[in-house]
Amino acid sequence: MGGFFKRLTLKEDPSIYEDKDSHLVRVLTVKDFLALGVGTIVSTSIFTLPGVVAAQHTGPSVVFSFIIAAIVAGLVAFAYAEMAAAMPFAGSAYSWINVMFGEFFGWVAGWALLAEYFIALAFVGSGLSANFRGLMEPLGVHFPNAIANTLGNNGGVLDLTAVVVIAAVALLLSRGVSGAAKVENVLVVLKVLAILTFIVVGLTAIHVKNYLPFIPKYRVNPDGTAFGGWQGIYAGVSMIFLSYIGFDSIAANSAEAKNPGKTMPRGILGSLVIAVLLFIAVALVLVGMFNYSSYANNAEPVGWALRQAGHPIVASVIQAIAVIGMFTALIGMMLAGSRLIYSFGRDGMLPKWLGQLDKNNLPNHALLVLSLIAIVIGALCPFAFLAQLISAGTLIAFMFVSLGIYPLRRREGKDIQDPDFKVPLYPVLPALGFLGSLVVFWGLDIQAKMYAGIWFAIGLIVYFSYGMHHSTLGKKAKK
């Protein structure tokens, strides 16, 4: 039994990862990572979640849910920033945990993140498709149900727009990250300008009475969930946390960062701060414009609020930019997901072919596999029930990374470089990051935890039947 546990906790030498990733070209700057982070975090959800959460759980106090979720995300972001500065390897949490705790735990963290990327890509592709079709309908362009909806959903066979969009982003990324970063930077600026326009125009339509009472009295919704009081705010945190998890997509690309010791912390923490400020401002304006109950079952509360307030043209422009802006989230998640799959192949945990670079030193084999699976999920599967699985998987990786700061500190300046950035208030903040992630995880609904359990069971089967026997670390230990 001791030998088996020893095998699971075999740790990768960080210098091996440095060598393996040395062929990836370091071209990304702080500006690129800020755009990548803001583009991934501030995606579809900023135009929908503030209204949805206010109507379902919190009322005007939705802003407290955003702030609490931001505090937890911020605590974890500090840990991510130190890890990325000390170990700028492809694969983020997977590679770090492999070095800190051993191969098995690295696999668990990486497998958790993989669920996030597969499903989030499909979600954003589908969301972009729905918004694009909504923009086209006033122009008289109607998509037949067969190519507008997912398999078995309202006569659908395949969501053609989602397929085209995911394939187009994959094609852009296959040509290199610097070109994709330039596109990302322009689209993110457009998207932030659209959000700021909504805030400025929305401020002219605010009615103070809509903020009262700011924290409605607690009651139980018909579906058994909480509304009002601190219970409702807590329920809102678990829904909202999904919005903030995009900063882990920055860390996955740290092997392609210029001067990662400074670039990574600034990109991770800076993008989270910008995103949090935008989310809080949109939430406050939205619930001030109309009573929160108006946003119940409203798929596009921002556009609806602007139209009701007499600004139909502004609503259309913002919705058009929102559709374009969703490309930024696809670029960020596809970059990160392909680097994670590349890392699995690099280490022999999945077929070696996935860890090979093409003639331009790009992990395009991994990108191809990620794109094909995301297309299948996004085009064919009705996956609304999987929404919180994204949060479940990521929260588990967040807990590992927070705890990983403790063994990291003991090795900094020895076999791992002493990073330019370190988590402040050590050893308290990493523990708070772990506990905060655990509390948010606990607040996810039972269905999300069950699906997360099924995903992990599949991951264990893959590890024990393939990864454990083919990993380069395991083969090295046998010699």
Task: Describe the protein's architecture and organization.
The protein has 479 residues and is an all-alpha fold. The protein has one domain: Amino acid/polyamine transporter I. The protein is 69% helix and 1% strand. It is built from 20 helices and two strands. It has helices at residues 2-8, 14-20, 30-41, 49-58, 62-86, 93-100, 103-136, 145-148, 160-173, 177-203, 229-244, 247-251, 260-289, 301-308, 312-346, 364-380, 387-411, 428-442, 446-470, 472-478; strands at 219-220, 226-227. The protein has a two-stranded antiparallel sheet with strand order 1-2. A hairpin with a 5-residue loop joins β1 and β2. α10 (177-203) packs parallel to α13 (260-289) and α14 (301-308) packs antiparallel against α15 (312-346). The radius of gyration is 22 Å and the shape is globular. The chain starts with a helix and ends with a helix.
Summarize the model shown:
The chain is mostly helical.
What's the structural blueprint in terms of helices and strands?
Layout: H1 2-8, H2 14-20, H3 30-41, H4 49-58, H5 62-86, H6 93-100, H7 103-136, H8 145-148, H9 160-173, H10 177-203, E1 219-220, E2 226-227, H11 229-244, H12 247-251, H13 260-289, H14 301-308, H15 312-346, H16 364-380, H17 387-411, H18 428-442, H19 446-470, H20 472-478
Antiparallel strand pairs: 1-2
Keywords:
single chain; 479 residues; Amino acid/polyamine transporter I; two-stranded antiparallel sheet; 20 helices; 69% helix; globular
* SSE class: mainly alpha
Low-confidence stretches: none
Order of helices and strands: HHHHHHHHHHEEHHHHHHHHHH
- Outline: globular
Which CATH architecture is right? Answer: Up-down Bundle
Enter the CATH topology name.
Answer: Amino acid/polyamine transporter I
Rg for CA atoms: 22 Å
